[in-house]
Amino acid sequence: MSVKKHARLVAITHSTGSHPRGWRHPNTPARPATDVKAFIKVVQELERGLFDALFLSETTGVMPGPDESHQHESMVNDSLDPTLLLSAIAPATRNIGLITTASTSLTQPYTLARLLASLDHLSGGRAGWNVVTSRFDTEARNFGLDPRLLRTPERYDVAAEFVGVVKGLWDSFDDDAFVHDPQSAQVFDPARIRLLDHRGARFRVSGPLGIARPPQGHPIILQAGMSEAGRELTAREADLVLTSGGGGWHAREAREDVRRRAAAHGRDPDMLVVLAVLPAVLVADTRAEAEAQLREFTALLDPADRQRHGILAGTANDFADIVEDWLDGGAADGFAVGFPYLQGPVEAFTRLVVPELQRRGRFRTAYEGSTLRENLGLPRPVPVRS
Ligand SMILES: Cc1cc2nc3c(=O)[nH]c(=O)nc-3n(C[C@H](O)[C@H](O)[C@H](O)COP(=O)(O)O)c2cc1C
Question: Does 101 sit in the ligand 1 pocket, CB within 6 Å?
Answer without folding.
Answer: yes
